[in-house]
Specification:
With 744 residues, this protein is of the alpha/beta class. The chain folds into two domains: 407 residues, MFS general substrate transporter like domains (Growth Hormone, Chain: A), CATH 1.20.1250; 244 residues, Rossmann fold (3-Layer(aba) Sandwich), CATH 3.40.50.300. Helices cover 67% and strands 8% of the residues. The chain is built from 31 helices and ten strands. The strands form two sheets. A six-stranded mixed beta sheet has the order 6-7-8-3-9-10, sandwiched between helices. It has a four-stranded antiparallel beta sheet with strand order 2-1-4-5, sandwiched between helices. Helix 28 links the parallel strand 7 and strand 8. The two termini are 41 Å apart. The protein binds adenosine-5'-triphosphate (ATP). The site of adenosine-5'-triphosphate has 10 residues, from helix 22. It is a multi-pass membrane protein.
Length: 744
């Protein structure tokens, strides 16, 4: 039992309880307000359908669409895709022969064939990165040459391990198909024919896939003997090389040209695009909800799709006793049937997309869902012919849906990130889907049989996949609206720069939204900083001041908006690269290595310029001249310096980089007034030298003394931009937050 409190304590406890309750209520209100902003921000960006890229555009025939970009690109890429398919079929059909030749188990051959999905992923990332940076025709050409060499190596393999290695090479070479071909096709041909091009492309691959079991089975049977399986690989290598050589001569299309034509009516050219960081690109891509959900869906389906062909062939041989030729014939019939839907799905998708992109995407989900019913029926069939026949409807529906993945990705991914966007999809679909599926199927197949493996994995994977695709269709218009906003902003900026080329701000922050996880903390933040200007970022606690500095220097990727340095977009450029271009951050808190001496700290900062001795010495001399206090303490450890001296050292370290734009987070926090005066004197010198500075400050007085202009942030939104003097006169903004705090 607790003793009752005396009256005075009871009173103060009541007051404390009341103020805690008030604080809690305030926090709940603030969070409710933030959530309302977030919901409003997400709602606002959905434009009317006819403003979205490709929606409501004039209808084009396939011939007109192909003529717009020249058919050479499409034909070459379709041939390469067909050869990919031929290669995959070679392994599937010959799996039992290869298994017997090397004395492998079912599980081992299933793993070797399906694991190429994992190898494919290893290449997808560099290929996507190359596709977003360099001429895509060369990337495709070199990947094709590597493919042909590795296909040859598969035929030469003297052991299961060497075959595994050759498959590794094939997988890497094939990895150019999704990221590089997709990006090339999207930029070469108009949006209105993407569905049909996807269907024709898939059709070409299907024709090859459908004929290849016959060809492969035929060649293997014709040559005969234990080495018959090698010859289909040899025969594929040569034409693959010829097509790869043609790819080098394809024209390189302008990036994003069709989105720009559709949305803006003209093409905004960017002659010197900044290099994009993979990390920032992925962070941005994962915020595209329709993309995220679609790739999760296809990853789920990948669990059964990639092992499906192998398990089918093993089942046909082991359960129904089909020979390699019979399997080839059945495979050809099954594969050919997939062609049935392709002439319909492409035009249907394009038509729906022109009217309503959400319906076009939902259609794919409705194609997938019924496959979950066909699958158990097929695997219950008593003979090979019934088994193949019942498998046909599911194959038709599934291949129709898969043929449209490329067109969907091309639409929702920003054009600068198309290669990496496809690479991200490849990672999910092939690595998580195919490899995960391969492992699980191999285990179940070894423990039971291919049928159990197929049913246990396939049915849930198909249901989940279909549901997720339908769900992703609810997000597509919001994501396309973002594409429109970005394009419009680019056009406006180009016009602004053309109108006043001498007045391009050094730093430009435009329409920035930023979230930590699902919590949005910046809303449409925008401001400019002119050359030589000092801008103060002021605001309440947690308003997002430090976050905006992170976004500027590249430590955070915004979900919307642009950051420009000297008129060039750096939104997705890596932080270290931005450092090279001149953006540097002095972070809040301790920015030194306490166990190292002052000199060693400065040497660490000079690491990047270590090879240029003269430049390095100039920077040392400049910095030590600016900070005589540090000059006298070069052998002292940083940890033994006073707080003010440590802040000086941190600033000196940033200045070693010779920044063009200096970002300072909390210059004066926790420092004695006399130290702050010394720091301000240094900032004055830097200003006089023409350095551009953005400084986050808590103190309005300090901001008034150093900054020409101020931006006031509250709850992630800009409430004021203008001369610092004017902010000081705005009682509503300044008094409560700063004067009150300083006074108190
Ligand atoms: N790493 C993080 N993860 C999740 N939320 C974060 C993270 N960093 C900051 N936040 C939240 O984001 C919001 C903005 O934070 P930020 O540090 O940018 O504000 P600030 O204006 O610099 O505030 P202060 O002056 O208090 O540092 C705050 O609500 C904060 O709690």
């Amino acid at each position: 039992m607790t003793a009752p409190l005396p009256p005075v304590e009871r009173e103060s406890a009541r007051t404390a309880g009341a103020s805690a309750a008030g604080l809690a209520a305030g926090l709940v209100d603030a969070e409710a307000e933030r959530q309302a902003h977030q919901a409003a921000a997400q709602r606002q960006v959905v434009f009317a359908d006819d403003l979205l890229p490709g929606v409501g555009d004039a209808q084009l025939t396939l011939r007109e669409g192909l003529a717009a970009g020249g058919s050479a690109t499409f034909v070459t890429l379709a041939l390469l895709a067909a050869m990919d398919e031929l290669e995959s079929a070679t392994l599937s059909v010959l799996a039992p022969d290869i298994r017997d030749a090397f004395g492998m188990s079912d599980g081992a051959i299933v793993f070797i064939s399906a694991a190429s999905g994992a190898f494919l992923v290893l290449g997808a990332l560099p290929m996507g990165w190359l596709a977003d940076r360099f001429r895509r025709n060369r990337v495709i050409g070199w990947a094709g040459v590597a493919f042909s060499a590795m296909v040859f190596a598969c035929g030469m393999a003297a052991s299961a391990f060497l075959l595994f290695l050759a498959r590794f090479g094939v997988g890497i070479a094939k990895s150019s198909t999704l990221p590089v071909h997709g990006s090339m096709i999207a930029d070469t041909y108009p949006i209105g024919v993407r569905g049909r091009l996807g269907a024709v492309n898939a059709g070409a691959a299907r024709v090859a896939g459908a004929l290849s079991p016959l060809i492969v089975g035929g060649v293997a049977t014709l040559v005969g003997g234990a080495n018959g399986w090698r010859w289909p690989f040899f025969l594929l290598g040569l034409p693959a090389l010829a097509v790869a050589l043609c790819a080098f001569r394809l024209p390189e299309p302008k990036r994003g040209q069709h989105e720009m034509k559709s949305v803006l009516g003209e093409v905004v050219e960017d002659d010197r695009p900044m290099p994009i960081s993979v990390e920032a690109a992925f962070a941005r891509l994962m915020r595209i909800r329709s993309l995220r959900t679609t790739i999760m869906a296809f990853a789920a389906m990948g669990f059964s799709l990639f092992t499906g062909a192998i398990l089918t062939n093993l089942w046909l041989e082991d359960h129904f006793g089909a020979s390699s030729f019979q399997r080839g014939v059945l495979g050809t019939v099954g594969g050919a049937s997939m062609l049935v839907a392709l002439p319909f799905i492409g035009p249907r998708y394009d038509r729906l997309y022109r009217r309503d992109p959400a319906r076009a995407l939902a259609l794919l989900g409705y194609l997938i869902l019924p496959c979950a019913v066909f699958l158990p029926v097929q695997w219950a069939m008593p003979n090979a012919i019934a088994f193949t026949a019942v498998g046909i409807p599911a194959s038709i529906l599934m291949s129709a849906a898969f043929a449209m993945v490329g067109p969907v990705l091309s639409s929702v991914v920003p054009y600068r990130l198309r290669g990496l966007g496809s690479a991200l999809s490849a990672i999910y679909i092939f690595f998580i889907g195919a490899t995960g599926g391969a492992l699980i199927s191999a285990l179940i197949s070894n423990a039971y049989d291919p049928r159990v493996a197929m049913l246990v994995v396939g049915v849930p994977a198909t249901l989940i996949g279909g549901y997720l695709v339908v769900r992703s269709s609810t997000f597509i218009k919001g994501d396309l609206s973002m594409v429109v906003q970005e394009l419009r902003e680019e056009l406006e900026e180009r016009d602004r720069q053309a109108d006043d080329p001498d007045n391009i701000p050094v730093l430009q922050v435009n329409n920035i939204d930023f979230s930590y996880g699902h919590v949005q903390v910046l809303f449409d933040v925008a401001f400019d900083v002119r050359r030589g200007e000092t801008l103060a970022l002021l605001g309440t606690n947690g308003a997002g001041k430090s976050t905006i500095l992170k976004v500027i220097c590249g430590l955070g990727t915004p979900s919307r908006g642009v950051v420009r340095l000297n008129g060039r977009t750096v939104t997705y450029v890596a932080p270290e690269q931005r450092g090279r271009y001149g953006i540097h951050l002095l972070p809040g808190g301790k920015g030194v290595f306490p166990d190292m001496t002052v000199r060693e700290n400065l040497e660490m900062a000079a690491f990047r310029i270590r090879r240029d001795a003269a430049h390095r010495e100039r920077r040392f001399a400049h910095v030590l001249d600016l900070f005589p206090d540090l000059s006298d303490r070069q052998t002292q450890t940083a940890g033994s310096l006073s707080g003010g001296q440590q802040q000086m050292l941190a600033l000196a370290m940033v200045l070693m980089h010779d920044p063009e734009v200096l970002l300072i987070d909390e210059l004066s926090l926790g420092l004695a007034p006399v130290v702050v005066q010394d720091l301000l004197a240094i900032i004055e010198r830097l200003k006089a030298d023409g350095l551009t500075i953005v400084v986050v400050e808590q103190s309005l007085n300090i901001a008034l003394s150093i900054a020409d202009r101020a931006v006031f942030l509250e709850k992630g939104q800009v409430r004021f931009t203008g001369p610092t003097r004017e902010l000081a006169e705005r009682d509503d903004l300044a008094r409560a937050v700063f004067l009150g705090k300083e006074g108190g």
